[in-house]
Write a structure and sequence with these properties.
300 residues; mainly alpha; MetI-like fold; 2 domains; 11 helices; membrane; MetI-like; MetI-like_sf; transmembrane helix
Length: 300
Amino acid sequence: MNSVHSTVSAPGQPVGADLSTTTLLTTWRSADRRRKATARRRVAVNTALTVASFVGAAVLWDLLRVVGVLPVQFFPEALEIIGRLGEELAAGFSGKLLIATGQTALTWLLGFITAGILGVIIGLAVGNSAYASATLGPLLRFVRSTPAVAFVPAAILVAGIGLEAKLLIVVFAGIWPILLNTAAGVRHVPPQYRDVAKSVRLPNLEVARTVLLPTIAPSIVSGLRVSMSLTLAVTVGVDLLIGASGLGALINQYRGVGNITSAYAGILWAGLLGTVLNLILLAVERKVLFWSPEYRRKNA
């Protein structure tokens, strides 16, 4: 006996579409909408909390001035500092702040890129070789425990007080989070990944490019995030200590002439720059690592 098979199509679906497929697609779209709505709520809550924390910090600052904990001659009002920062930014490149920011940004960017490249290369070598890890591990731990500012005299002796000395210190400070995160990521690569690479006889460089780097990308990005903030802070500090230019030097100059409000405006501006850079790297991380199971677990 012949049977007649009829196909049920959902509204808006092509004729002949299977009902189970349509149901799965509808469920997936609904779940995707819920995820996006949850993400939007999370962003809104985080933004509100961030604004509230800044407002609370400003109120606490002024309150401590009023009760006498902070001497008013050395600690201007929060709104006065914010207003001065606005004036400095409104002056554009005819003022001092943006020019000093550009000088600091150049030092930071060169140092951060150099630290990133060296950190990934050395981290791959240390993490991928038990012999290298055993040989270099103790030395790296010893050097890492040394504060970057301790190398300021040596950097001045070797490279003077120009850009080269600043870069030496910034690279030294910023390389460790990247190197250590990369090495740890390599050591935790699943063994079966390496076994597959060996079975198809991939060269070492090809293994690093197609197996190791994609697998350890979340670890590298985590190291980059830490290093980015650290190198910016060290750059401003080095400008303040040995630099004749840059944001730190400008802050020190304002302090030296008694322009305390402008000095605090420069400090506030440096903090805002670090916050913006961190947000940019977080956005890049979301775009680049959306496929990573480790990243999805961390941000679930």
